[in-house]
Specification:
Oligomer: single chain
Order of helices and strands: EEEEHEEEHH
Mean pLDDT: 92
Low-confidence stretches: none
Radius of gyration: 14 Å
Shape: globular
Number of helices: 3
Length: about 130
């Protein structure tokens, strides 16, 4: 099983989305939340902070676990479990792209986020906007 954390940075009814780089194996060039794999021996909370620092240079200070979503095993891998968090306070100023995992970032109105094309995890984005 693979554990992945996804961080929904939320500010003034906007959510931060990042566009995955074309070389990414999963969801290349799709819009997604900030996040990544939980490393062996690491808690989901620690992975959330590490991934945010590595990908956009921000350190989550106030965050809330929202939900866990699992995907059934695929032909080329096992089950994937996504741990979704809402991040409402952070340090580090404005987000900036670090490394080569993403090519763009955008603050998007919550109600418009589900319409971003292509979108890596539509079901997860729907969780952010409530029932």
């Amino acid at each position: 099983m693979t554990d992945i954390v996804l961080a929904a940075f939320i500010s003034d009814n906007h959510v931060l989305l990042v566009r995955r780089a074309p070389h990414k194996r999963q969801f290349p060039e799709y819009w997604d939340l900030v996040g990544g794999h939980v490393e062996v021996g690491e808690t989901c909370d620690s992975a959330l902070v590490r991934e945010a620092q590595e990908e956009i240079g921000l350190t989550p200070i106030r965050f809330e676990y929202l939900k866990t979503v699992s995907e059934a095993p695929t032909a080329n891998g096992g089950e994937v479990t996504y741990h979704i968090y809402a991040v409402t306070e952070w340090s580090g100023g404005a987000p900036c792209l670090l490394g080569d995992e993403h090519t763009d970032l955008a603050w998007v109105l919550m109600e418009d986020a589900i319409s971003m094309k292509p979108l890596a995890h539509p079901a997860i984005i729907r969780i952010l906007s409530g029932p």
